[in-house]
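Re: adenosine-5'-diphosphate structure - here you go.
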Amino acid sequence: MEEVKIYDEYTSSVFEGAENDPDNLVVVKNLKKYFPIKSSFFKITVGNVKAVDDVSFKIKRGTTMGLVGESGCGKSTIGRTILRLIEKTDGQVFINGKDIFSLSKNDLRKERPNIQIIFQDPYASLSPRLPIGEIIGEAVREHGIVPREEFDDYISRVMEACGLPDYYKPRYPHEFSGGQRQRICIARALALNPDFILCDEPVSALDVSIQAQIINLLKDLQKQFGLTYLFISHDLSVVEYISDTVGVMYLGNMVEFAPTEKIYANPKHPYTEALFSAIPVPDPDYKVNRIILEGSIPSPANPPSGCKFHTRCRKCMEVCKYLAPDFKELEPEHFCACHLYNTPERQKELDEAVAKIKKEKETKAAEGHGKKAKK
Ligand SMILES: Nc1ncnc2c1ncn2[C@@H]1O[C@H](COP(=O)(O)OP(=O)(O)O)[C@@H](O)[C@H]1O
Ligand code: SF4
Ligand SMILES: [Mg+2]
């Protein structure tokens, strides 16, 4: 089937000029990251995995933004792209007002200590051959964060802030539990005195009892050092606890973005509604109104036309099958991409566009039949 043309850009420029507001530490505008799919023969690009497909959001200094969505929806790719660990396909990322993708290699190197990352698996990101004092201090030395004579003292203080006594310094990663290893990773990030830390599923591999300790440590450090976090997780309860704002992703799109209390109390997008209805509530008298999502998540290499969620949405309308909804501000600071919230004027415009697309398709189909009949 021929691909239906997208009538409008998915995201309008909702964050125009947001990078000039010094309150915003991170501003992401219309970010795209496509991974080419190569044929096994001749290695020709035959398509793209649209892992991140026109995503916009902003994070205020000293706050935490949670990023949620089913596995494979593009959360980690957003994280890796905004830290410029991988190159973007399109869009802009500003950290501290600086466009990350226009920095030279040298300027990016200078910026690196300021933007740190913590991963899900702390063991995989710790060198087994180095004692932890060295692991935490290595980059501190490389970037000259403190004068040489203050180095030892500084590392001890950072470790202490992360709940690690300084006599652990000569010990090796394998001597520690999962929770302590995550503390080591946090200490390594914190030692570089960053503004921003990307936390990619930082507690998903830990026991539930340990998870709370690490989350509380992250919260304490945020208060103490004014840190800003992007917190990626599929655990909606953890995200509610730690985040000031939450972004919900579906198949590479940001479908909703709002302050935590607003989005949890009053989700506007049908996908958010379904996702949040599955959160367990610790009250036996509570009537569960769980919305079951039908079907499996489509492939980002071949996403549905129009609204990418239309194949699973219980509120799907005709327009949803043809045209992607705009990402727009429904209430102050509450953004959503769904045709349910179109103004009557916009809906009329879109209905006309759908009628035109359908007519074009019919004409083409009739022409095709005509050609066949001639043969
Ligand atoms: N390096 C890569 N090459 C090709 N496809 C990738 C690569 N990294 C991620 N993807 C694809 O991009 C999509 C998003 O992945 P990811 O960002 O890891 O999702 P999440 O973190 O939400 O689980 C997935 O379909 C994944 O297979
Ligand atoms: S745009 Fe349509 S299909 Fe998409 S979430 Fe909204 S109602 Fe559902
Ligand atoms: Mg991931």
